[in-house]
Structures are given as C-alpha cells and as structure tokens.
Amino acid sequence: MGTMEATRDALKRQLVDAIRMLERAGIINHSGHCSARRDAGSFYVNSGASVRAALTVDDIVAVDLDGHLVEGSAAPPLEYHIHAELYRARPDVNAVMHTHPQWSTFLTMTGVAFKPVYAQGVLLGDIPLMDSPLSINTKPMGEKLAATLAGGPAALLKAHGAVTVGADVVEAFVLAAYLEENAYRQYMAMQIGDPYVFSEAEQRACREKLWSANLFKKTWDHYYSKLR
Fold first, then answer.
1. 179 within 8 A of 101, measured Cβ to Cβ
2. Number of Cα atoms under 13 Å in the Cβ half of residue 163
3. Sign of the CA dihedral 167, 171, 173, 176?
4. CB neighbourhood size of 28 (10 A)
C-alpha cells in the first residue's frame, strides 16, 4: 500500500469514527452526513443510504465537487452540495459536519439567538442563521449556505440543523459537539431564567486558551472512548 493510499484509508476511518460518535451523542440521526477533503477537487462522505450507527469504511464514498463518484458505488447524500460548495468556497476547510442537533435546532425554531453561555461554546463565535428549513440539495442552496457561513466555523439552519467546518476532522467534530453542548445549557437555563452570557473580555480569554489542538484531541478522545 502506497503512502497516499494509507493516508486516505486513515482519513476514511477517522471520518467513520466522527460520524459514529456524533450519532452516539445524538447530534446526528439517520440522515446526518460528514465529509473530509480528499484533494482539491473531491471529498469523502458517508453514502446517503448508510446506517450511521453501524457505519464502516465501506459506507464512505468519494465524489468530486459536482457530485460524481470517484470512489465507491453507492450514492452520496442528496445534500452533498453542502460539502461541495463549502470546499469550493473555503480552501482552509478540510472537514465538514452537517448535523441535526436537537437543542441547537430548538433555538432556531423559536427565533432565539445562540449565545455563548459555555466556555467552549465561545469558539463558535456569532453563529449566522440560514433562514430556510429546506434541504440543501441544489447547488444554489449550497452556495447560499457557503455565503451564510462566510469565513466562520459554523452556521445554523432554521428548523433543520447545523454545519461546522474545520481544518481537519477532529476540529470540525469537536466544534459540532461544543455547539450542541452550549445550546443545551442555554436552553435548559432558559427554563429557569435568563442565562448568563460571557462578556467580550471573557470570550477573548476563552478563545485564547481553548482554541487548542491538544484540547480538541482531548474532547475527541472523550467521545471516542464511548465507542469502545
């Protein structure tokens, strides 16, 4: 096996782990999908028909930015445009997680803005909202999402879900987990009163200390341990 082939196999295994961890955490369901950039013009993604909770590397296909199969024989998810247009617009992005998180989606359904109420949630910044509940299954919809996300790490999709991006699979996964944990704490606090929102100074301190590859790996390892 060549070096490139071994690297790609490892990337596919890592993507499978990320999807299974998100499903185990209730952050994706039967129709969530995640991807990793394969090269400048293609990416790996779980097939549309795959069972997320029982995913294997055989369920990972590669498609180009127009959705044509490069590796594998199963069809990609209908919303492959999410991934294609983000990779097209963001050369800094190497992984995309499209999730269907419960608590984050509750906020979008009621018009409540995501607020930084949790230290790690600060890393998501001021998350933009794509004001449409429709499936992102066309190129123009994918382009609209890319414009909504712009240069940030995350976007919320009204009454639908969320998207996080990262420099690698670990980063995109961890941001998806942080987003939902923040939304959960915000939602639950709202049942009692008005949640405390981190000040600008507190947010700066969190970004300086918590945007760390080592801490991202620590969070990844926490979720990974639950798969075993």
1. yes
2. 31
3. negative
4. 27
Q: How far is CA 105 from the centre of its chain?
A: 14
Residue 5 has what pLDDT? 86
Q: Report the CATH fold assignment for 3-225.
A: L-fuculose-1-phosphate Aldolase (3.40.225)
* Residue 189: Cβ within 10 Å count: 15
Token duo for residue 209: 């200390």
Is residue 218 very low, low, confident or very high in pLDDT (cuts 50, 70, 90)? Answer: very high
Domain ranges of the chain: 3-225
Cα-to-chain-centroid distance, residue 34: 7
Radius of gyration of the chain (CA): 17
DSSP state of 196: P
pLDDT confidence tier of residue 102, bands split at 50, 70 and 90 = very high
Question: Sorting pLDDT into bands at 50, 70 and 90, what band is 1?
Answer: low
Alpha carbon distance 177, 197 (integer Å):
19
Q: What's the predicted TM-score (pTM) here?
A: 0.96
Helix (H, G, I), strand (E, B) or coil at 58: helix
